[in-house]
Amino acid sequence: MIDATKFKPKTVYVIYIAAAPEKVWQAMTDPQLSEKYFHGSHVEIEPKVGGAFVVRLPDGRVNVRGEVLEWSPPRRLVTTWTVDWVPELREFPPCLVSYDIEPAGECVKLTMTESYSWDPPEALLSGGRSGWPASPSNLKSMLETGKPLASKMEPPKGMMEAIKELALTKPWLKG
Amino acid sequence: MSKPKFVYVIYIASTAEKVWQALTDPEISRQYWFGFRVAANGKVGEHMTATDPKGKVVHRDPIIESDPPRRLVYAWHPLYDDLKHERPSRVTIELTPIKDQVRLTLVHDDFDDGSIVHEKISGGWPAVLSSLKSFLETGRGLEPGWREAEQKSAAEAGA
């Protein structure tokens, strides 16, 4: 298994949700619920350490593949994360994505952390930084109002160029 | 190392006008900003003022840019505790309507290295803006229990 201690957090996102930790956990791990707030994507998780983690696009294609590194309902979920829908990205080392759910007064604090074993440039991180807030915003709306927000995902400007460049230079292979 | 900077993005099912009003009208802010009254509806050169739930003035900062309901920039200089000894930082808020929602982007920057204010606001803004979103979408802000959680995680981090 991957050595999680070699990964450093690069993007952290915190949002507070008026819901029970169990409800947030369920929304994050149930494919039928994930479809409602995660841009129509299905999150499929084998509920055990070492289990498979897949994010499937609405048309059935695999968007993200990974492995479950920590499964502690309803508090903490950690998976590896390799984007599959861009061919170049399949060669990249996986990043780690962790979700921490902590009670905070009458609501919960959800912390999402994206960690890397290498030093990715800003242009690559911009994907997570601009894309991530949409899903937790939608998740929060779904749990608090029953109505998720409609959203459309697009890679930020410059990100695809950065991916092509990185696929050629492979900076993670250098110390 | 790059200078400390905080960036936060949140999507809200509302209009730019309503989000702007909630960010600048003290009678609305107190309902989601954990009792704080924040007035920022002035012109450039006037002030953003904030009072805590007991009525004590905790901010009186120049408004640097104001383009309602799209862009608001003000200085940030807390007037309490040891934080008052730091030089002012800067808050930039941009509202972008997207179909039936608004993307709120907040950038808080212009800190010195090792700024304690930077550490505080990094914990504070996600709670305030999460509560703002709840308030505009459900009519109810969040309960300020986040303070205990913040104190607990701060204590753990310091241990």
Could you please describe the fold and organization of this structure?
The complex is a heterodimer of chains A (175) and B (159). Chain A has 175 residues and is α+β, with helices and mostly antiparallel strands. Chain A has a single domain (4-173), classed as Alpha-D-Glucose-1,6-Bisphosphate, Chain A, domain 4 (2-Layer Sandwich), CATH 3.30.530.20. Chain A has helices at residues 21-29, 31-37, 122-131, 134-145, 159-169; strands at 8-17, 42-45, 52-56, 62-72, 76-83, 95-104, 107-116. In chain A, strands 1-7-6-5-4-3-2 form a seven-stranded antiparallel beta sheet. The longest helix of chain A has 12 residues, at 134-145. The mean pLDDT of chain A is 87. Chain B is of the alpha+beta class. Chain B has a single domain (6-158), classed as 2-Layer Sandwich (Alpha-D-Glucose-1,6-Bisphosphate, Chain A, domain 4), CATH 3.30.530.20. A seven-stranded antiparallel beta sheet of chain B has the order 1-7-6-5-4-3-2. In chain B, strand 4 and strand 5 form a beta hairpin. Chain A binds chain B through residues 13-18, 102-107, 109, 129-130, 133-134, 137-138, 140-141, 144-145, 147, 149-151, and chain B through 7-13, 99-101, 126-127, 130-131, 133-134, 137-138, 140, 142-149, 153.
Number of domains of chain B: 1
- CATH classification class of chain A: Alpha Beta
What Rg of chain B, in angstroms, do the CA atoms define?
15 Å
Side by side, the strands of the main sheet of chain B go 1-7-6-5-4-3-2
Quaternary status: heterodimer
Tell me the strand order in the biggest sheet of chain A.
Answer: 1-7-6-5-4-3-2
Biggest sheet of chain A, in brief?
7 strands, antiparallel
End-to-end separation of chain B in angstroms reads 25 Å
**Strand and helix order of chain B:** EHHEEEEEEHH
List the defining traits of the structure above.
heterodimer, A: 175 residues, alpha+beta, Alpha-D-Glucose-1,6-Bisphosphate, Chain A, domain 4, seven-stranded antiparallel sheet, 5 helices, B: 159 residues, 4 helices, 7 strands
